[in-house]
Amino acid sequence: MPLPTFIIVGAQKSGTTTLHDLLGQLPQVWVSDPKELHFFDKHHGRGLSWYEEQFIPSPDQQAWGESTPFYLYKDRARRAMAEALPSASFIAVLREPVSRAYSHYWFSRSKGAEQLETFAEAIEAEPRRLGAKRDGQPAMGSYLDRGRYLRQLGDLADRVGRDRILVHLTDDLRADPLGVLRGTCRFLGVDEKGVGDVQVRERNTFGNRTVNSERAGDTPPERRLDVVSGDDYPPMDPDLRRELRARFRDDNTELASWLGRDLSSWM
After folding, report:
1. 74 φ, ψ to 5°?
2. Whose CA is closest to 67, among 88, 50, 90, 85?
3. To which CATH superfamily is domain 6-262 assigned?
4. Alpha helices in the chain (DSSP H)
């Protein structure tokens, strides 16, 4: 079987499941099931032949891929992807980093992987947790560090070329999911036919990341969740949000320049 023509590499809790689902509804695109294969971060030892076997597109499909949002953050995953996939395309969806971190925290809580009872405690513990891992990039507890996107994207671009990376914003995916899908099709060289028939399916709960509602229209408005992030948890303390956004201001200013995008709403 062929290696993937594209990978959605991140960021976690930014809408990768939504984009994966949208692409998977197009007859000319094949996406993996499960969504996250974790080959380049967890299962690299299984060998490239195992990875190839996970992709079974039909002859008439124009693009095929998977979506593992840990890849963007993990240094070794970026290196391994660049070496193994010399012609693949890479897609990132970026969410305002403080909101992403808070969503990540509650996702971890919902899975029983986070024992600290407040987000503030988890932020305070993050430097210690990062330092406890040999590569400084743990899967759990890396709430703020994962939101320093430019370091990750810049490294990937140095390895594969900027022209092989497409970056969407969660805000775009939320406001115009089919427009984002059309842009992704153009980037992948895929026929846009059928985009108008794609259903934007609602996520059921922040604690169940891959479950989609087939009948989102039947959900009462007061119970509908964020279709992109699946968030449904207590609001963040406003003072803490302001403090954390200030921490990211320089990073986000540099990222805005790199992307050529206005990120003032993040600041």
Report:
1. -85, 120
2. 90
3. P-loop containing nucleotide triphosphate hydrolases (3.40.50.300)
4. 16-24, 48-53, 75-84, 97-110, 119-132, 149-160, 170-175, 177-188, 238-247, 249-259
Q: How far apart are CA 113 and CA 242, in angstroms?
A: 26
For the record, the structure tokens of 5 come out as 């023509």
Q: Report the pLDDT value the prediction gives residue 139, as an integer from 0 to 100.
A: 81
Domain boundaries, the chain: 6-262
Please tell me the distance from the alpha carbon of residue 137 to that of residue 151, in angstroms, as a whole number. 13
The string of pLDDT tens digits covering residues 135-161 is 778 888 999 999 999 999 999 999 999
Tokens 């703020």 appear where? 144
Q: With b meaning 16 or more CB within 10 Å and e meaning fewer, what string describes 22-59? A: bbbbbebbbbbeebbbebbbeebeeeeeebeebbebee
Residues 175-207 pLDDT 10s: 999 999 999 999 999 999 899 999 998 764 444
pTM of the predicted structure, to 2 decimals: 0.89
